[in-house]
Amino acid sequence: MPHVAFIGLGRMGHGMAGRYLDSGFTLAVWNRSRAKADDPIARGARWAASPADAARDADAIVTMVADDDASRAVWTGKDGIIETARKGALAIECSTVSHRHAVDMARDLTTRGLRYIDCPVTGLPDAAASGKLTLLVGAEADDLEAARPFLAPLGATIRHFGTVGAGTVFKLINNLMGAVQIASLAEGLRIAEQAGLDMPLVQQSLASGAVASPQVVRHSARMVARDFAGASFTAALRHKDASYAMALADNLGLDLAVARAALDIYARATAEIPDEDEGRLIDLIRATPTN
Ligand code: NAP
Question: pTM for this structure?
Answer without folding.
Answer: 0.96
